[in-house]
Amino acid sequence: MAKRLRDLKEKPPKKKTKASKASDDVERGFLVTGPTCQEALRGLKDLRLHLEVEAEERKDTQSDHRNSEGVSVCHSLDVELAELHSQRRFLTVGMVCKQVAFLRAQHVDDIPSRLLSRFLVPGRDRFVSRFADRAQLRCDALWAEGSVQRWNAPLPTTSMQSGRVLPVDMSSQPRSERFSRLAQDVLASHAGRPWRLLYEPFRGGWNTISKEDAFEVCRNILGADRQSVADPEITVVCTVQPRFVGLAVVTFDVDYLRVEDEIG
């Protein structure tokens, strides 16, 4: 017993894991929601494919120069694979909590809120996904098989029926002091503009950042007298879940964050 206690005292402290290290980094990207984890992952896959196809590809200015160099074939392949890995625009992180998946933006020029203003607002490049239609079908199936009683449970919300994509322009650990610094970095340039808040605390998220906390930083930075529910110029999107608290500013109607199916 004494030897065991001595061994425990001499045991070195555990090193920081990769997961905890990743949570310290500022992450940007897209949160994709669905009625199930499977549907959220399907929506994330559809979104990544859409962004990779529709978003403008970065120009590879080094390709011709690389071909002109007299290097071995193996070395060329190794260099090309390394560059492809490092230049990948969007990285699938996967589930961050129940019914919420995360797609990380790798390049500093890819601002999630700006990309969504192109791909979610109705237009030529409008993002549609079969997972949105499947989500509605799943809700109908639950009613039909009797696993959910109509008279005992409320109808699913529109957002959970069809799925949504929410932007994360910047993020931090969900702690009060870090959230205050994050809000200053994201919102300071929008001070004085009419605003409103969209606050989304996802299931499984830490409750350290409340809706009141989000409202307080918005009032302090953007101005309490500039809050406008009827006619805002900007909407502050605040998302909270275990991995991080995220902020983004969008200038379009937040109803467009709902993903339509292929028919809609």
Task: Please give a structural write-up.
- By secondary structure, the chain is an alpha+beta fold.
- It has a single domain, classed as THUMP superfamily (THUMP fold).
- Helix content is 41%, strand content 18%.
- The strands form 2 sheets. A 4-stranded antiparallel beta sheet has the order 2-3-1-4. Strands 5-8-7-6 form a 4-stranded mixed beta sheet.
- Helix 9 packs parallel to helix 10 (211-223).
- The longest helix has 18 residues, at 37-54.
- The protein is globular and about 40 Å long.
- 28% of the residues are buried.
The first-level CATH class name: Alpha Beta
At CATH level 2, the architecture is 2-Layer Sandwich
Identify the CATH homologous superfamily.
Answer: THUMP superfamily
Largest sheet: 4 strands, antiparallel
Strand content bin: 15-25%
Helix/strand/pairing category: alpha+beta
Region (Disordered): 1-25
Protein name: THUMP domain-containing protein
Biased composition (Basic and acidic residues): 1-11
Which helices and strands appear, and what pairs or packs with what?
Layout: H1 2-10, H2 18-24, E1 29-33, H3 37-54, H4 63-68, H5 73-86, E2 90-97, E3 100-105, H6 112-119, H7 130-145, H8 158-162, E4 164-168, E5 170-172, H9 176-187, E6 195-201, H10 211-223, E7 234-240, E8 245-250
Parallel strand pairs: 6-7
Antiparallel strand pairs: 1-3, 1-4, 2-3, 5-8, 7-8
Helix pairs in contact: 3-7, 9-10
Question: Short summary of the structure?
Answer:
By secondary structure, the chain is an alpha+beta fold.
Keywords:
THUMP fold, single chain, four-stranded mixed sheet, 264 residues, four-stranded antiparallel sheet
